[in-house]
Design a protein that fits this description.
Blueprint: H1 2-6, E1 22-31, E2 38-48, E3 53-57, H2 64-72, E4 79-84, E5 87-88, E6 96-99, H3 111-121, H4 126-139, H5 155-168, E7 173-177, H6 185-202, E8 205-210, H7 213-219, E9 222-226, E10 233-238, H8 255-268
Parallel strand pairs: 3-8, 3-9, 6-7, 7-8
Antiparallel strand pairs: 1-2, 1-4, 4-5, 9-10
This protein binds adenosine-5'-diphosphate and magnesium ion.
Adenosine-5'-diphosphate binds at residues 31-32, 38, 40, 58, 60-66, 229.
Length: 271
């Protein structure tokens, strides 16, 4: 791990991806037309500052995925704007990496080739690609399975590979849609800790969608809560917890953690 950390291209403040500020302004999104229309989002304003870890939480169907896909440039909002450094988002781009609930790896490619796919498509040389895949596979703990295929990996390993693949494009912002939702509880906790570590090392902004309040308070530097559909923001606060010693997941044991989790759960109606 230490070796990989020394040559991170995107470590905070050392170059690599540029710091990027994402702004969602007055975004309303409606799927379909007339009687068959579904209003998914209503008047969403959200700014993601460089280096933030924003967790977006809300009940099922409230528009979380829609908002993330609007940020990713997969949809154009019915009303309002999404900009990165004041430039309107016109489609998916290498500045925004996407990690979905299902890992969506290419089954015919090795783990390494999956991680190298973005750099390969942007014309990065073989040597530089190899360096990137070594670095990110090491970071997510998959260096020893680099030459295997996705079907040979567990669900948690596949999701780590998908995270490495997103990071290998050196995006400034990583958009993650319930990436640990399909994993068992133990794997999920382990990956949460690892993701926190990766975020602290890689100097990216992360927007992380989840319906788990606990996950949002554990991971986020900020928690944003959406109302039931059509989603609008009903809570947007930084996560402020007292300093704690020892293992990273000690935060969950703090009374302040439990209090904040209960407060947000109360707002969503999941207590
Ligand atoms: N491509 C689509 N076409 C039509 N309706 C959609 C589409 N995607 C999502 N919706 C609808 O928009 C609402 C919000 O969906 P979604 O953003 O997936 O919610 P969440 O991720 O919070 O569970 C839901 O009612 C869903 O059925
Ligand atoms: Mg969703």
């Amino acid at each position: 791990m230490a070796a990989a950390e020394t040559h991170l291209p995107s470590a905070a403040g050392t170059g690599g991806s540029r710091p990027e500020r994402m702004e969602v302004r007055g975004v309303t999104h409606v799927f379909g037309k007339d009687k068959r229309s579904t209003p998914a989002l209503a008047g969403v304003d959200l700014v993601v500052e460089p280096g933030e870890f924003v967790c977006l939480v809300g009940p099922s169907g409230c528009g979380k995925t829609t908002l993330l896909k609007l940020m990713g440039g997969f949809f154009v909002p019915t009303q309002g704007t999404v900009t990165v450094n004041d430039v309107p988002v016109a489609g998916p781009g290498a500045d925004r990496g996407m990690v979905f609930q299902q890992p969506t790896l290419f089954p015919w490619l090795t783990v390494r080739a999956n991680v190298e796919i973005g750099p390969r498509m942007s014309g990065t040389s073989h040597t530089a690609r190899r360096q990137l895949s070594d670095q990110y596979l090491e970071m997510v703990g998959l260096a020893d399975v680099a030459e295997q295929h996705p079907y040979e990996l567990s669900g948690g390993m596949q999701q780590r590979c998908a995270i490495a693949r997103a990071l290998a494009n050196d995006p400034a912002i990583v958009l993650m849609d319930e990436p640990f939702g399909a994993l068992d509880a133990l794997t999920r906790e382990r990956l949460q800790q690892e993701l926190k570590q990766i975020w602290a090392t890689a100097g990216k902004s992360i927007v992380f969608v989840t319906h788990s309040v606990e996950e949002s308070v554990f991971l986020g530097t900020r928690v944003v809560v959406l109302s039931p559909r059509p989603g609008h923001i009903v809570y947007d606060e930084p996560v402020v917890l007292p300093q704690h010693q020892g293992a990273v997941n000690d935060a969950r044991l703090l009374p302040e953690f439990a209090a904040l989790r209960a407060r947000i759960s109360g707002m969503i109606g999941t207590t």
